[in-house]
Design a protein that fits this description.
The chain has 194 residues and is an alpha+beta fold. The protein has a single domain, classed as Roll (Nuclear Transport Factor 2, Chain: A). Helices cover 34% and strands 23% of the residues. It has seven helices and four strands, in the order ααααααββββα. A four-stranded antiparallel sheet has the order 1-2-3-4. It is globular. The termini are far apart. The N terminus is likely disordered.
Amino acid sequence: MKHSAILFLSAVFAFLPGAARAADEPEAVYAKYHRAVMSNDVGEMQKWITAARRAELQGASDSTRAAALTLAQYMVPRAYAVQRRIVSPNGRATLIATGSWDGGHQTLDTVYGTIKLVQENGEWKVGETAWSDQKPEILLTPKSAPAPAANKGAAKVPVAGSASSDASDKKLGKAKPECVYKPVMTAEDMERCR
């Protein structure tokens, strides 16, 4: 009975539009995977990894699986922030993340994660994760600016020496909060320090 229900649901999901099946973006999938790793939930973790990684885990002994999960928990920071997202049209994505790592005797202010995801059956799955204290080269280059929106009219260029009375030219508001480096920083703390 259970087997036929799974086949039925698989058939239903096969006919859904791609947008409905691929609702979770790479960041959301990695967040679910990360949460499962941190909560020591192997069953939940397996939902978010590639079929190849799932097969490796299922073929391993219980003690090997437990050791792999313990190692993953040790290597991955408890909190992280995605700094870059690269999605290829061939169904691959790479996330570059930063976080603070506490290894018991040693604390690193910043560690860098490279998370590679692939699409399987229209859904993002975590393929590889690697965390290191070495800053990835991609973070050494400035972020590319988003494409400008379509211009709805001529751009207003003020004449040299004139004062503009257009309110949209004035930039008033609160000053950016001061950056304070801490042993453990939230995403907001890291954003302030960019």
